[in-house]
Every structure is written in structure tokens, then in C-alpha cells.
Amino acid sequence: MIRQQLAWFDPARIGHSGQCFRFAPLPEGGGWGLTARGRRLCIRPDGDGFLFDCTPEEWETVWYPYFDLDTDYEAFAAAVNPRDAYMTAAVACAAGVRILRQDPWETTVAFILSQQSNIPRITRNLEAVCRAYGAPFADREGNIWYDIPTPAALAAASEEELRALGLGYRAPYLRAAAARIAAGQPDLASLAAMPYKKAHAALLTLPGVGVKVADCVCLFGLHKLDAFPIDTHIRQMLDAHYKRGFPMRRYKGFAGVLQQYAFYYELYGGKT
DNA sequence: CAGGTC
DNA sequence: ACTGG
User: Fold this and answer.
1) Is the CB of A169 under 7 A from strand C?
2) A7 & A62 share domain
3) Is there contact between A170 and strand C, defined as CB under 7 Å from any strand atom?
4) Number of domains in chain A
5) Closest to A81 measured CA to CA, from A249, A227, A228, A238
């Protein structure tokens, strides 16, 4: 167990920001639980800081990078044009949200499942896929959790099995994309080193991955902060507040972070 | 109608 | 076009 005081870190907001679907309130309340990188982590508020149930070594090598704590999000917030009332409000509403450094394969699976769905259903579907095809592992208390299935494990599943989990028409997309990744076409590990546009183009070749899902994988799985996914909510937001276009040049290099803040604001607007 | 894709 | 909040 370790204690940390962290700037711009709000687990409650990160948990339902829609970038990660395996980050949920603890059943007993008062904290958050997360399954990622083949591990389980619990986060509990402790005065002006947080308690993390991991070793200092795990914090250093796994969770500190996962939460992207080397990046200065306050600087991104400070760069917002003060005359932009909409984005100023969005950033205030989403203060404490960071872009997690999630696994690219996990985000590929999650966002293939995300199309024409909603956060509660995506969460359920992803959990069902992990339970059915993912490797079980135990936390230090002996509780069993399930990792994201390997591409090979998902490619071996039948469309009927996947539909039985409630994935609907996304089942064949997921299966076919898994087969492609298992064959190394494309090699997800190598995408991280590519510039955003090249990585985006490679992801677009996957079945069930269009412009929007590819942008989500770039932003949340490859940490390309230039990626700016445009979904139905962001489309409405752009039409309502940026009729002359979103100022991408001004926010070059981190526009995706502001996209996430606008998305959060559209969903929860002032309620958190 | 839902964080779209083919 | 699956399915459910």
C-alpha cells in the first residue's frame, strides 16, 4: 500500500470519462478498482491524497506510467483560450482527467464494441469477453480477475459464441480484427512508434474500425494526443460552439485531450 | 437513439 | 443492423 498526493488526478472522473471501461467504483464504495496490464489496482481517497494497493516498485514501473503522471495536464488547461467560454467550462468540469496509457489491443477491442452503444453496455460487453476468453489471475487477496483475451484467443472464438455474449453485429468485426492482429497485420506494438496519421491509417485497415474508432485507439491506446475522435456528441458540440472550425492549430499536440474534456462536459455537463 | 461501420 | 437504457 502506498500513499500519493497527485496534481490533476481525479479517479472518479477518469473512471466514467469513457476512455477506459474496466475502471469502476468499488462495490463497498469509497474507492475505485481497475483491471489493466494483467493486474488489479484499488484506489481509495485518503485526506488530500490517495492510497494505492500496490508496491512501490509496481507504482514506479506500472501505475505511474499508466496514469501518465509525467505529463503536465495543467499546462494543457492553461493553454485554453480564455475567450473560449465553452472550452474553459469543459476543462473546469473535467479537471483531474488524464489520458491513460492503455494497452492498444485492449482499446481496439473496447472501441470496436463501442460503436452504436453506450458506456454501461460497452462495460458489460467487454467484461463478458474477458470472462469468457481472458486469462484469469489472482490479486493478493486471492480474488480472481480476468485479463483482456489475447488476439489468438478471440480469433478462435466463433461468431455465435460472441453474439451469445451480447455483442450483436459487432461480433464478426471483433473476431476478424482479432485474426488480423494475431497475424501481425498490423503489428500493434510497432504503431506506437509511428506518427499519428500513419498509425491511424494502419488501424483503418482492420474490420470494424472506421475513422472514429481508429482515432479512439490512437488517443487512448497509442497516446497520440493529436487524435481527435469525432462521435455524435462531439459532432453536436462542434456544430453548436465551433461553427468556424475547432482551433486545431492552437492546440496542436494535445487537441485530443481537449476532445476528452469536451466529451466529458457533454455527458456530465456541470453535474460532477 | 446509443462514443459507427461497411 | 444487434440490443438495451
Assistant:
1) yes
2) yes
3) yes
4) 2
5) A249
All residue ranges of chain A with pLDDT < 70 are 270-272
Q: What is the pLDDT of residue A29?
A: 86
> What residue numbers bound the domain in which A44 lies?
2-70
CA distance linking residue A7 with residue A140, whole number of Å: 28
- The residue whose CA lies nearest the C1' of nucleotide C1 is A169
What pLDDT, on a 0 to 100 scale, did the predictor assign at position A272? 44
A116 CA, B6 C1': Å apart: 14
Q: Which of A263, A253, A220 is nearest to A66 (CA)?
A: A220
User: How much is the pLDDT for A269?
Assistant: 86
Contact in structure between A94 and A199 (CB atoms under 8 Å): no
Residue A169, CA: closest nucleotide via C1'?
A: C2
pLDDT at residue A270, as a whole number = 54
Q: A213 and A111, same structural domain?
A: yes
Catalytic residue flag (residue A212): yes
Instruction: Answer for A136: CB within 7 Å of strand C.
Output: no
- Answer whether residue A216 is part of any domain: yes
The 10s digit of each residue's pLDDT in A177-189 is 999 999 999 999 9
Same domain, A113 and A23: no
